[in-house]
Amino acid sequence: MRTMRLNTKLIGAFMIMGLIILIGGLLGPIGISQLGDELRVVAEVHFPAIYNLGTIIEAQKNIQTSTQSLLIPEFFGNDAKKDRLFQEIKQAWERAESGWKNYGALSRSKEGEVIWSNLKPAWVTWKKDHNEIIQYLNDGKRSEALALFVGRARDNAERAEGLLKKLSDLNLKLSEEAKKEGRDSGNWQKGMVLTGTGIGVFIAVVFGIFLAGSITKPVYRTITNLSETCDHFATTSQQIASSSHQLAGGTSNQAATVEETSSAIEELSSITQQNVNKVQILEKISSDTAVKWNETFEFFRQLKRATKEIKLSSEETSKIIKTIGEIAFQTNLLALSASVEAAQSSEFGTGFSVVAQEVRNLARRSTEAAKNTTTLIEETIKLINNGENLVMASMGSLVEYGRVSTPITSFSVKAGEVAQKQAQGLEQINLAIAEISRTAQSNASSAQESASAAQEINAQALSMINVVEKLKQVAGVTG
User: Fold this and answer.
1) C-alpha gyration radius of the chain
2) N or C: which end of the chain has fewer CB within 10 A?
3) pLDDT tens digits for 131-178?
């Protein structure tokens, strides 16, 4: 090391310093690039996938709900309500098709592609069943539509809904994994930058101390070598100034890139907040639907009790009519007996015979009226039994609807929690990017200061050469 030339020492020192600065400068862009890739995957794939799948699920629920409402006799017999429900079904299908088209254009993982390939035929089958139900309703065949709705169509709808939920859960899982990978990558890059900076500072200090000792002794040993050292020092200071300018430019570009990334994250945060608001609205709608379902179910319970009371009243009335018929029959027999007795009596029995005949006619008419009334009451009881069966079927449909719609509320709550966590994660990322931006701007400022210092050193080196030349003249050194 003692025999090494001074310019070699300086060049080696600055090469080491340049290497340390280069490594530190590269770690920042590499980390930002990796973080940007993770954010791009979340923003361009997972968030749109979750949003479009949520739109499809919400539209399918609206289609099922509106179709079930059309099967209720009260709505089926009301043209205004029926037209409104048909319009709601049409709008829901438009939303579902839009979400379906948008999700189909997105890239998917292998597992997601398998679920998607299973979902497409299930969705087509359910859509075919639903179109058949709508056709029955348009033709006025409510019973056929109801049988298809609670049978095959409901099974196909549940299968499609299960695959949609499975696909949505997969995208939520992948989004969480991408967020975790981005956070881990950022922490690793931060640790590497801090570690590299510490090691670089330590090496620079040690090497600076060692280099200062090795330079001072040769300077004092010979004035001639000092002249050569000054020349090399001036050349090296120019290189430092040039490198500092380049570093300042690169750091400025890095700061601009960080600003662009920060803007993109702010926009992504706004989109995420919108998704949070939409999920909250969906949760409110699900809650209101549950309240309406409870009110409707209570109404049908009251209707069932009223139907049962009407049935009991009709049965009691039928018993009374039967009693009236029996009385009329007995009256008819008495009138017949009175007519026979009147015919066997004297001339005074003639008037009594006429009265007995009228009583007999009244008894016959009462019997016929009792028979007709009994027939009408029996028909009424049959209609009441049919109504009671329809009420039981409607209550069963309501219970099934409550069971099917229960996961909607839990899904809305879970989606709201996930969206809130994502918004918080993006906020933390935004803060980290802001910190990186401040660091990059500080580095740019430091680089500019280093360039100015290098220029000042260059000027001092030129001044030192002049001093050495004068020193040579004083010392009598030539050459």
Assistant:
1) 47
2) C
3) 888 888 888 888 888 888 888 888 888 888 888 888 888 888 887 887
